[in-house]
Amino acid sequence: QVQLVESGGGLVQPGGSLSLSCAASGTIFSIYAMGWYHQAPGKQRELVAVITSGGSRNYADSVKGRFTIFRNNTKNTVYLQMNSLKPEDTAVYYCNAGIKTRTGPLTVVGDYWGQGTQVTVSS
Fold first, then answer.
1. Please, what's the b/e burial string for 39-77 (b: 16 or more CB within 10 A of its CB; e: otherwise)?
2. Averaged confidence pLDDT in the chain
């Protein structure tokens, strides 16, 4: 019923920039926090950045000052602007959102994930 579709990953040189986007679609009643996580090979998935429905942001210490998360509530889309990329940023990046769906009189809040997009920072 609900899908998160990511785009924008790829290969970039150290110091370069990439923009990721994630669009939510389906029978959406409302969207709460939206965020980005990354997972490097052999490591656990980690939070990169999160933004609430009201626009409050939090970032992992490793990306503060380099990455910016923002959202367009009209388009149900969250973005991640990544600047000054480092090789250690290489990972699969996943979009996440808390979404309320409605079926008749019932509403349910679920935790949804995108399929992931590869970001590789290498010279």
1. eeeeeeeeebbbbeeeeeeebeeebeeebbbebeeeebb
2. 96
